[in-house]
Each structure stands twice: as structure tokens, then as C-alpha cells.
């Protein structure tokens, strides 16, 4: 009997249910939007407005020399906020370098969330406090970490789901494929959220993949792929909430692709005009996530001019407090460079720490 006769080559899963819908899933502006919880929409609106102001203030801080770099998520705030709101307090969020806002929406102190980008610490907050992993500057390395944590939690019997965020550029990294394959085989309770903002720095998506969508890649791993309008916060929240529930119930991982757009440059060091036209950016402004939600809420009389004004004033107070605190010069100990890297410092780290300590002592005596 040959291998082919045993039919072990056949797919273990019917691929049809794993395929994403042909068009991104939407809620706002559809008849189904009328059934959305008013309180949740109000919370989302407040978080979006604060998030937009946070992005603009952080960008301004780079121009003032208070931040070394800031990768803005302006235009992607719906994905950021929805990811934070879809999780339970016991769950874990694994952000990429652009997901500072998601960490803040999860409860991380706004100043502490910027500490890495300020260059003061490896990460400026306690990951365990809000269950937010350190912001990840290397592309996609947070994905295997999310899978490892979620898989270990399941082995221990802990009711924990990990939500890992990555950009479309990160899907071209090997870590992306390794994480999805392991999670799929072991049915780890992980949700992968790909924020497809059109560009990996200056490289358009068409030069990264020939797949119909990034969500279609899920089929190759035997997991469901979902395609959603990333500027429709209600739709993103609904899809992520469903995926989190599925993971928690033992259904395994889900790959969610959110179609969105990065309105600002890749970072303050990037000149986006070199690879995209202003007309393209302006076209996406018509689908601004704040405007999309505001229109839907006004149609249901859930938002008026006074509420808009109050929300914007609250965002301004947040921005003022952020400016004031960021204008304070941090008192840093160079030896902190070696703290919280490993539970037990490696011989190399101990050697490097001794060298730095000797240099500091010599400098103090000179």
C-alpha cells in the first residue's frame, strides 16, 4: 500500500469554511448597525477621538525632540481601539511598534507607553499590570511570543487568549508563518490581527504578496481567515470579539485582516510623498474611522454637537497632561540598561555591566 492509497495527503479540513468573505465585513452604515449597543459606541467614539489627539501630540513631541521617533497610527485608530476593547482583563495583547495607542486604550499610562520611543528604557511599563507585552520594534517577533504564552496558558489550564497585532509588512517575515503554523497545529488560543495599511514603509502590498488577500493565507494553515473594514470600529470589534470567543472555547486561532490606511508617514523620519500621491491620501480621508462612527451615531441620535465638543475637550486635557509630563527630563541610571532583560543575567550581560560600571566610576573621579 502506497502513501497515496492511504489518503494521508488529503486535507484534514474542508477549506471552504476557512475562506474569508469576498468583501471586507462592515457594520456601520448597514441596517445591522441599529442593533449595536449605544454605550459601546459612545465608549468607542471617546477612545477614537482621544486616540487621534494622542497620535498628533506624540508626533509633535518628535518635532520638539522629546521623542526619538514616533510611528503614528493616525487613520488606523479603529483597529487599535477595537483590539483593546475586544479582550478581557485576563487576556494578553501583543502589540507591534505602531500599536502604542492600543496599549494606551488597554490601560497603559500614556507616558509609559512612549518610553521606548523616547529611548529611556527597553519598555516603560510593567507588562503584567495590564497584560500588554512590550512594544515590538523588530517585525513580527511578537507573534511567536503570543503563541508561546497562549499555548502555555492552555497547558496550565488558564483561561487566557492572546491577541497579536502586526502590519502587512510583518506578514512577509518568517516569524509570521512560524507563529501561525504552530498555533494552528496546536489549536492555541490566539487571534492574529493584521492591520493592512497598504504599505510596508514604502513597499505596496502588491509587491509583497500575490494572494487574493492576506486573510486568504489562513487557509494554508487550516484556520479561519476574516476580512474586515479596518476603519469601521464596530465591525473590527465584532470580528475580533467573535475570534477571541472562539479561541477561548478551544476553537483555535483566527487570522483577521483589517483593511485600513496609514494617513501619516511611516514615521517622522519618512517622506511618504516619495511613494504615494496626495490624492490617494485624500481619498482615504473620506473614510476616516472617526467620521464613519460619528455619522452612524448621529443617525441614531447618539451624538450631538455638545457631546462632540465635550469629547474633544477631554482629548485636549489628555494631550496637555501628556505634553507637561513629557517636558520633564527623566532622571536615568545608565545601569538600568541591564535591568529586566533576563531574570538571571547572562555572563555576557554581567561582563558588559561591569565594564559600564567601571567607566562610570572613572568618569565620576576625573
From TrEMBL:
Q: Which organism is it from?
A: Actinacidiphila glaucinigra
List GO molecular-function terms, semicolon-separated. magnesium ion binding; oxidoreductase activity, acting on the aldehyde or oxo group of donors, disulfide as acceptor
Specify the signal sequence span.
none
Q: Which InterPro entries does the record associate with it?
A: Alpha-ketoacid_DH_E1_comp, DH_E1, PdhA/BkdA, THDP-binding
SUPFAM superfamilies given in the database record: Thiamin diphosphate-binding fold (THDP-binding)
Instruction: Report the cofactors.
Output: thiamine diphosphate
Q: Which UniProt keywords apply?
A: Oxidoreductase, Pyruvate, Thiamine pyrophosphate
GO biological-process terms attached to the record: branched-chain amino acid catabolic process
Looking at the record, the residues that make up the Dehydrogenase E1 component domain are 55-317
Name of the featured protein: Pyruvate dehydrogenase E1 component alpha subunit
Amino acid at each position: 500500500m502506497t502513501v497515496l492509497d492511504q489518503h494521508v495527503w488529503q486535507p484534514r479540513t474542508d477549506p471552504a469554511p476557512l475562506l474569508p468573505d469576498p468583501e471586507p465585513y462592515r457594520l456601520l452604515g448597514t441596517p445591522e448597525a441599529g442593533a449595536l449597543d449605544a454605550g459601546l459606541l459612545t465608549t468607542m467614539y471617546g477612545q477614537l477621538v482621544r486616540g487621534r489627539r494622542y497620535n498628533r501630540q506624540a508626533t509633535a513631541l518628535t518635532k520638539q525632540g522629546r521623542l526619538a521617533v514616533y510611528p503614528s497610527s493616525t487613520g488606523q485608530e479603529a483597529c487599535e481601539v477595537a483590539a483593546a476593547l475586544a479582550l478581557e482583563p485576563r487576556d494578553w495583547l501583543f502589540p507591534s511598534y505602531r500599536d502604542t495607542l492600543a496599549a494606551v486604550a488597554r490601560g497603559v499610562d500614556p507616558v509609559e507607553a512612549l518610553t521606548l520611543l523616547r529611548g529611556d528604557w527597553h519598555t516603560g511599563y510593567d507588562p503584567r499590570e495590564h497584560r500588554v507585552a512590550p512594544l515590538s520594534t523588530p517585525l513580527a517577533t511578537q507573534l511567536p511570543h503570543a503563541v508561546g504564552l497562549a499555548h502555555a496558558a492552555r497547558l496550565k489550564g488558564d483561561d487566557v487568549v492572546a491577541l497579536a497585532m502586526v502590519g502587512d509588512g510583518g506578514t512577509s517575515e518568517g516569524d509570521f508563518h512560524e507563529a501561525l503554523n504552530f498555533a494552528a497545529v496546536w489549536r492555541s488560543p490566539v487571534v492574529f490581527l493584521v492591520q493592512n495599511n497598504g504599505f510596508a514603509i514604502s513597499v505596496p502590498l502588491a509587491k509583497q504578496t500575490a494572494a487574493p488577500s492576506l486573510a486568504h493565507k489562513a487557509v494554508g494553515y487550516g484556520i479561519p481567515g476574516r476580512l474586515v473594514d479596518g476603519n469601521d470600529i464596530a465591525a473590527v470589534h465584532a470580528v475580533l470579539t467573535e475570534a477571541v470567543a472562539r479561541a477561548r472555547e478551544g476553537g483555535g486561532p483566527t487570522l483577521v485582516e483589517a483593511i485600513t490606511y496609514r494617513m501619516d508617514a511611516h514615521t517622522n523620519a519618512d517622506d511618504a510623498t516619495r511613494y504615494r500621491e496626495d490624492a490617494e491620501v485624500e481619498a482615504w480621508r473620506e473614510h476616516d474611522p472617526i467620521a464613519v462612527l460619528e455619522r452612524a451615531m448621529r443617525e441614531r441620535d447618539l451624538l450631538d454637537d455638545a457631546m462632540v465638543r465635550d469629547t474633544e475637550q477631554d482629548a485636549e486635557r489628555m494631550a496637555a497632561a501628556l505634553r507637561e509630563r513629557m517636558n520633564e527630563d527623566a532622571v536615568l541610571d545608565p545601569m538600568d540598561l541591564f535591568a529586566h532583560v533576563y531574570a538571571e543575567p547572562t555572563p555576557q550581560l554581567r561582563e558588559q555591566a561591569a565594564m559600564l560600571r567601571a567607566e562610570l566610576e572613572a568618569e565620576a573621579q576625573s
